[in-house]
Design brief:
alpha+beta; seven-stranded antiparallel sheet; 41% strand; disordered N terminus; To_sf; Haemolymph_juvenile_hormone-bd; signal
Length: 250
């Protein structure tokens, strides 16, 4: 039993030693007085160097980021709508600037905040959906494109240290962000000629009133970002030991 345990530990150590985490992230002493300044540099390096993804860590390309599909349902008084989006590409993250960062970490809790600015984000993909307004029904499908500028937001990651096979890691359990957006413009095509005039009208109204609509759809978007953020963060935090990512040298 001891021999098997030793072999497992040795195999894990060899596996993680093969990952040069400093290739993607700057290492910061979690108890250093300069931890926040170090984190700004670390995240900025990670945003740039992980843009194309990492086979070592299992992190997918982040710019553009591909989400295979997303389902959305909206009900508000007389308005009902359902939409299935697919092959969704989100581009622009790699041009982001890290403005500030704050870390609170010990043996029991992990909390990281990163203030970000992204000058431009473009989201495009395919869609298929339908909706109704009172007795009026609409079916539509085609391509969509949404452009946003001057995004200001904070990543908030919460996690718990966790021992796996005798090695301490951090499991991220929550990811939160709420971007403030400077401008937003949406375009879409509609391959259904019967409903195209109505979708054209809908897009014009959407672009003229995007701010209140954005706030209304924000909780749905945040739920989606939370799932994506947790999954991607844990590709790193559950693969690289806590004391390797954030050593306690002080």
């Amino acid at each position: 039993m001891i021999k098997v345990s030793f072999l497992v530990t040795l195999s894990l150590a060899m596996c993680y030693a093969a990952i040069d985490i400093e290739k993607y992230l700057k290492i910061c002493d979690r108890n250093s007085l300069e931890i926040n300044e170090c984190l700004v540099e670390a995240v900025q390096k990670g945003v740039k160097d992980l843009a194309g993804g990492s086979k070592d860590l299992g992190v997918p390309p982040l710019d553009p980021f591909l989400q295979k599909d997303l389902k959305m349902e909206y009900n508000n008084n007389q308005i009902q709508a359902k939409m299935v989006m697919s092959d969704i590409f989100v581009a622009g993250l790699s041009a982001s600037t890290v403005k500030d960062a704050r870390l609170k970490a010990d043996e029991d809790n992990f909390h990281l905040e990163v203030d970000m600015f992204t000058p431009n984000v473009v989201v495009n993909g395919k869609y298929e959906g339908g909706g109704s307004y009172n007795s009026l029904k609409i079916l539509a499908n085609g391509l969509f494109n949404t452009s946003m500028t001057d995004l200001v937001y904070t990543w908030k990651l919460d996690g718990k240290p966790e021992v796996i096979n005798g090695i301490m890691y951090v499991r991220i359990i929550s990811f939160y962000m709420r971007p403030d957006v400077g401008t937003m413009t949406t375009f879409l095509t509609n391959e259904n000629p019967e409903s195209k005039p109505l979708t054209d009208l809908g897009i014009r109204i959407t672009n003229e009133n995007w701010r209140p609509l954005y706030k209304e759809f924000l909780p749905f978007a945040q739920s989606n970002w939370n799932k994506i953020g947790i999954r991607i963060a844990n590709k790193i935090f559950l693969k690289v030991p806590y004391d390797t990512l954030f050593p306690n040298k002080s």
